[in-house]
């Protein structure tokens, strides 16, 4: 075994010196090499998205070397026999070429598609983690907004990429995009003609989507991801509550060497999972679908998962259409397209973007937060999040109602009817249930703190009753539970004369006060105790320093 | 910093399955135990046991060797396995993907073992500082801003300010103006919706005859007498436009043969020929081809969003999000008995759009049937 280094080796010292003399890098490194990163499994979710994005850039660049973004018709002359001589676009032909005539082409194409699915999934779960732990609170609202923007861009990026191979399935997605675009009031036909270069499908859309997909949107995503990471770096990561962790410090492992190595390993894990999926799990076998024609479609056409909720909401909608003026040349409002295409997406995205600001308005909380909330400790927020998940989930599930119907032998029409009810009922139920579960979990926390945990020691009391002796919770667990802070609340109480405080007097003010009272405050105080059982009989085990709960 | 405290920082690593509330391993049930001997030179850095680390080093080395071998296997596979047919591509994909996965996984696992078993355990603490700058700094910035504004003359010289705004406005419009020719048809914008109202079924062939209905795929014209089994269905495109996707996106038909007594009042009988009815195949919801047909119920179903139309009754909507029936195409036969279009659709086929208006009323006003 070689001995440890005592001086920086020449190979590193030389270039470092060169750089430092020119850009003063040592100052930056002095501050940042040992930057502390707190540890929690849920902090790794966003990294999945980051590494998937890197993989998307790598595999995507490879694909561009062969892909031809052209809708020019050619007769297929590649090595996939069943399509020989078939007329198709150059885009589709080159996608087939990548799949069958380039070694590793199919692997990279499948990796690209899997990485895209993982990219959006990673962003979604990361966003949920940030939401449920309140990590979007001051000072991180800007980073939250960047995240919402990134998520939206990722959906557009996915949509444009899905359309590029120009097979029958990708064309079906494009047709739906056109149907939605043309339904927009006033501007629909103009948008469609400008987007497609004339009537659908035209000969331009693939090359246009191509430049959006490989240049404009990834460029924006790259810029925003960089800003996202810089802000995270500057503001330092939030940490979970625990022993020694306060709002004024950060406890964890240093960037160099531990976090750096972990991040490297995690990158490789993400790559390996994607490579494994691409090896063993077929995705989007475009050669089976054939070239796109607006005259055909295959049954069971499904979008990628992240578009499923839009598909579901389109399927769910009743056939509403309004003719505003009753004339024959203007005023058609196809509500059965506009509402499902815009409202759920708009609700979710606007709700996400505004949430930090609405919460601050309701709680009046202007302080900085660096310790994450446990979801149970802000029950209304958690319930709102769960309601949103169920809303999204029902729409998403209904996006596959034909599959549900086929696999579970349910009438297709009934899946829709049930879905129409569930999309409203589900979120309401989720809200109520989640709220109760959160309070229940808070109670159990309070019991751990004030009552202790079961020690496993059974004691028989003089009158014959058996009880289990409780012992104080371990320090770390107790610190974790005691990290709870009451949700801040506005000063809503009326003064002695019954006059509500300033700003709470008008109708909006009253609403704000009511919401603040409901949303904020301590629901279950930690030291309230358990309120039942053997008041004085929980005799201590062992020494007299027992602080178990003899209240 | 004791070992026990250290447990707190890495609960998921060291104590994977501890039930909440239960004491950490090694904690005395009778209050706090003695702090474990400290191994670290720096507070918060706990070095690993050297024997464990030595064992881990071997595992890491094994992992890295696996990566080395797998990467070599990838290169060999690239040379050995050729692509071409689906079968050969599948084998190549398996060999390349398998070795790549293994190579990445080996490196990933190796580094994780390295970090967890060889590098020290950390529980370092860093102070946070409020993001807000201190008052002095803010004041200096504000003063500097005002000073700069004054020096620039922006506030004092309104002419400069106003002409600058004037200059910026049209300059900002240039990128928008440049986008006008995105529409390659070069039509005036007001004409866009006119083109949506018409399909090629209103056109004539070169020798002035109406267009024949031809079978999608084969391009064969359809002799009415041959299309005679009730319940039969064909996907039909206009003669001469089999490869014109723009034409197909509006003009594709679904052709159904009924027994005379099956047809209900919603269908315009004048536009049928001998029980043969032609509907637009383009769904009136968002334009997917409504390609599925159930013979027993006469239901046409769009696989995208499951709009369902009753083919026997003018393709009226009986389920799903589509708001309007599939438009019916007037058909007849030419002198050789082939099916032809009598004219264009009376109303625009396909998805609704703002300028579509009440096209049905317009068609009725012209004396037609919508």
TrEMBL record, chain A:
Residues 526-551 are annotated as: Disordered. Its EC number is 7.1.1.8. Its cofactor is heme. It comes from the Bacteria. The chain crosses the membrane at residues 48-67, 113-132, 144-164, 176-197, 209-234, 255-280, 337-358, 379-397, 417-435. InterPro entries: Cyt_b/b6_N (IPR005797), Cytb/b6-like_sf (IPR027387), Di-haem_cyt_TM (IPR016174). Keywords: Membrane, Transmembrane, Transmembrane helix. Residues 15-241 form the Cytochrome b/b6 N-terminal region profile domain. It holds the Pfam family Cytochrom_B_N_2. It catalyses: a quinol + 2 Fe(III)-[cytochrome c](out) = a quinone + 2 Fe(II)-[cytochrome c](out) + 2 H(+)(out). It is an enzyme of class 7 (translocase). The keyword Membrane applies. PANTHER family: CYTOCHROME B. This is Cytochrome bc1 complex cytochrome b subunit. It comes from Nonomuraea roseoviolacea subsp. carminata.
Automatic annotation (TrEMBL), chain B:
Residues 271-340 form the Rieske domain. It comes from the Bacteria. PROSITE patterns: RIESKE. The chain crosses the membrane at residues 59-81, 93-115, 159-179. Pfam families: QcrA_N (PF19297), Rieske (PF00355). Keywords: 2Fe-2S, Cell membrane, Disulfide bond, Electron transport, Iron, Iron-sulfur, Membrane, Metal-binding, Oxidoreductase, Respiratory chain, Transmembrane, Transmembrane helix, Transport. Residues 1-16 have a biased composition (Basic and acidic residues). Residues 1-33 are annotated as: Disordered. Gene3D superfamilies: Rieske [2Fe-2S] iron-sulphur domain. It is found in: Cell membrane. Its cofactor is [2Fe-2S] cluster. It is a multi-pass membrane protein. InterPro entries: QcrA_N (IPR045603), Rieske_2Fe-2S (IPR017941), Rieske_2Fe-2S_sf (IPR036922), Rieske_Fe-S_prot (IPR014349), Rieske_Fe-S_prot_C (IPR005805). Iron-sulfur subunit of the cytochrome bc1 complex, an essential component of the respiratory electron transport chain required for ATP synthesis. The bc1 complex catalyzes the oxidation of menaquinol and the reduction of cytochrome c in the respiratory chain. The bc1 complex operates through a Q-cycle mechanism that couples electron transfer to generation of the proton gradient that drives ATP synthesis. Belongs to the Rieske iron-sulfur protein family. This is Cytochrome bc1 complex Rieske iron-sulfur subunit. It comes from Nonomuraea roseoviolacea subsp. carminata.
